[in-house]
Amino acid sequence: MSYKNFSEKLNKAIDFDRVLEKIAEYASFSCSKEEIINALPYRDRLKIQRELDYVSEALEFVRKGETISFAGCMDISYSVNKANKKMSCTPQELYEIALFLVTVKNVRETLLKSETKLLKDLAESMDVCANLYKDIQKQIDATGNVKMDATVKLKSLHKQLVDTRLSLNERARAFMKKNADSLMEVMTTTINGRLSVLVKNQDKNRFGGMIHASSQSGQASYVEPDCFISLNNELARTQSEIEEETARICRELSQKVASFAMPILSDLETMTILDVAFAKARWAYEYEGCVPTIRLSQRNLLLERARHPLIDEKKCVANTYALKQEQNCLMISGPNMGGKTVTLKTIGLFVALSHAGFPVLCDRALIPFYDSIWFDIGDNQSIENNLSTFSSHISNIANICQNVSNHSFVLLDEVGNGTDPLEGASLAISILEYLIEKGCTVITSTHYSQVKSFGKANDHVLVSSVEFDSQTLQPTYKYIPGVSGASYAFLIAHNYHLPDSIIQRADEYKKDNEQDVQRQLEKLEKLQNDVLVDKERFNKMIKQAHQIQKDAYQEKEKWEKKNKELQEEYEQRLHDMLEEKENEANEIIQTLKKQKTGKLHEQSEALHQIHVLQQENTQEEEKQADESLKVGDYVQIESLNSHGEILDIRKKEATVLVNGMKMKVKLNRLKRIQKPNVQKVPKKVHQDRNFTRFPLELNLIGMRVEEAIQELDRYIDQAIYHKVKQVRIIHGMGTGALRSAVWKDLDKHPMVVSKMSAGPNEGGLGATVVLLK
Asked: How many angstroms separate the CA atoms of 715 and 357, rounded?
């Protein structure tokens, strides 16, 4: 069977693709999403186990509350291959490669600190390409553009561009002031990159130069006066040189990317494996799933409290499905719309998911290893091949019987259905016997009483059913092992108002044709069902008792932990207090040693302070600190004849400046007082201007509007101080709120000559070029 055909059968039979799409939503980037969506069961047990081991470690990582971020990870294979073919990457592509390498570095560091084993081995195999990242980061900014000062030449060209623009703007202002009467508007505009003015038609030839276009009204023309041409030419030439230098930088960086192509693509493959593992783990964690155990030697199957992923978790009924070692056929019966098909699909889906390396939504899953998986479920009527539903089913089952082995999994829905009941039942029994003898694991459903009787008499078959409430005539979707379900056809017919005479006559026909063995079997099943109901009620009571015990234990642990935390906090406070007092005492002793012996009264005062400190050690804890104290307050230190200004506050300790000396004092020893009015002696201040390298651009991306405007105002003031004539403000596009706020603030600034959106190579609408006086 081809890959495509098998995938289509899998998707049609058990909705495999729909489940994979739900899991893919937890992946972080396109490569891992695609990997999950295209997954299929493996035939190699080692591959299955490797995938499940990755998920197991990732799930344990998530359950411990640890976090890992794949933000910034993207499919950069196109850009890397492009560089490998000696083509130049764009600045945006280079930025994406650098961002990918940062993510690789972060993921690698996170996993190396974790307690995982296999995932840590994968992390260790990744190369963060630090030199390449540094080179790209040095010349490409966060907007995906080449930095204005990426090279000395580029910086010089940008300065030249600024100077030319300033000269051109000054010339334009002088021109407009002198010739205001000939202009339609006292403002300039840019046509094809050249600065022009809107001149009345009668004066359009008056100033020489070039006429670029006419206004919409036809009453004016866009003219580039003769006095603008030289500066416009110089501006165009400088911009062309900037583009050439930018292209050269991208070309060199692309060559470096090509030299790192192999480790980068290897990192991409490893990051895909890791993200797939964590996507599976996050899905399993959210829906309380588990990693299945695949066993080669044992044949028993167990899905404990299985829930179908496509059914609303609030409505889904959890069921436990189990087959013993000697049982290799699970037969499910019950009325139509009772949940037989959902049961079949759930078991088939979990077998397929586990063999594709995925977790399943169970409390515990033990699944044998199968070298092939086969399905015959749903209406397979083929118009193309002129096959009826029965013919199509038999054709598919014939193919299954010819290709199965003792390690095959077979899912058959309503085997033998669609033809004469007696012949269909006989054929179903024969097919099941053949598959059982082959040693396959078979999951099937049936309505035929003859097939149920066969199952009851065969030790390799577990007959089961889905529960149906005979009072409400509604399915409960509970799975009942060991009991074959009735069809409830007469009850359902009565509920739909079929005449009672017809139902009574049908019941008589049934009794006439029903053997005594069958009647006794139904009585036995009823008794067995009653025992199962009592057992379920007993298990529920035990579970509630266990939950009460578990809650009591958790509450006890919580209070013990709280008590331990309070004790540790108390001991730490005592330790900090003692250490503080010792430090203060040592400072006083050091002061005594430095003083002259003649100052007896000062030494006596210092000794008194030490005595006071010793007394405070026993009283310190009882005092309450003034919570309103803040940096800048003037305070008095209680028990010491000292006062000063608070420089810093950390936790419950303040740094106080006392007579030029810094002291660390507990807040509960400070009292706010009025600062003395001391006349300061004026000093002559010598101002030395520090000439430092001033950045020609400001990046506001990621800031709130208020924070960004404060930073912008501060930056513009510094630019004016350093006599910078042009700067670039990077604000990004986003919603446009930050860009709008920046422009409004610039309009109000008296030192701003003009502003404009940056060119395509300077950030476009994501940046603003500002000219200053």
From this structure: 55
In-domain check, residue 547: no
Cβ distance 271 to 127 under 8 Å? no
Tell whether 387 and 454 lie within a shared domain: yes
**Strand partners for 443:** 330, 411
Q: Total structural domains in the chain? A: 4
List strands edge to edge, sheet with 329-333: 372-376, 408-412, 441-445, 329-333, 461-469, 474-481
Question: Which residues are paired to 322 by β-bridges?
Answer: 302
| Euclidean distance between CA atoms 568 and 38, whole angstroms | 54
Query: Token pair for residue 305?
Result: 């409290």
User: What local confidence, expressed as pLDDT, does residue 388 receive?
Assistant: 57
Rounded to 5 degrees, what are φ and ψ at 227? Answer: -75, -15
Show the beta-strand stretches assigned E in 377-490: 408-412, 441-445, 461-469, 474-481
Could you tell me the two tokens for 323?
């087959």
CA 409 to chain centre: 36
Is 415 within a domain? yes
Q: Which residues pair with 648 in a beta bridge?
A: 655
Do 583 and 663 form a contact (C-beta atoms < 8 A)? no
Tell me the C-alpha distance between 108 and 127, whole Å: 9
The verdict on 463 and 335 lying in the same domain is yes
- Say yes or no: 17 and 162 in one domain: no
- Angle CA 449–450–451, to nearest 5: 90
Residue type (1 letter), 173:
R
Spatial CB neighbours of 751, under 8 Å, sequence gap ≥ 6: 716, 720, 772, 773
Torsion of CA 574, 579, 582, 583, to 10 degrees: -140
Return the residue matching tokens 């089961």. 464
Q: Which two tokens stand for residue 199?
A: 């001149």
| DSSP summary character for residue 355 | H
What Rg value do the Cα atoms of the chain yield, rounded? 41
> What digits encode the pLDDT tens for the residues 439-452?
999 999 888 888 88
Taking the mean position of all CA atoms in its chain, how far away is CA 9? 32
| Below-70 pLDDT ranges, the chain | 1-4, 336-338, 378-389, 468-475, 484-498, 503, 505-507, 509-533, 535, 592-624, 639-641, 659-660, 677-692, 760-761
Residues 118 and 214 in one domain: no
Residue 138 lies in a domain: no
- The answer to whether residues 154 and 242 touch, using CB atoms and an 8 Å cutoff, is yes
Q: Are 445 and 460 in contact (CB under 8 A)?
A: no
Question: Tokens 């006392």 sit at which residue?
Answer: 658
DSSP H/E element including 242: helix 226-259
Separation between Cα atoms, residue 663 and residue 654, nearest integer Å = 8
Residue with tokens 């269909």: 424
Range of the domain at 710: 697-772
Q: At which residue do the structure tokens 């207090």 appear?
A: 577
Residue by residue, DSSP assigns 712-762 as HHHHHHHHHHTT--EEEEE---TTSHHHHHHHHHHHH-TTEEEEEEPPTTT
Q: Which 3 state secondary structure label does DSSP give 186?
A: strand
Q: What is the crossing angle of helices 30-37 and 261-286, to 10°? A: 60
CB 167 within 8 A of CB 129: no
Residues 338, 442, single domain; the answer is yes
How far is Cα of residue 583 from the mean position of the Cα atoms in its chain?
49
Q: Is residue 421 part of a domain?
A: yes
| Contact between 728 and 767 (Cβ < 8 Å) | yes
C-beta atoms surrounding 593 within 10 Å: 7
Laid out side by side, the sheet with 661-666 consists of: 661-666, 653-658, 642-650, 634-637, 670-672
Alpha-carbon distance of 148 to 728, in angstroms, equals 9
Amino acid (1-letter code) at residue 596: K
- Is 772:719 a contact under the CB 8 Å cutoff? yes
Q: Are residues 194 and 334 in the same domain?
A: no
| Polymer length in residues for the chain | 773
CA–CA separation, 639 vs 584, rounded Å?
Answer: 13
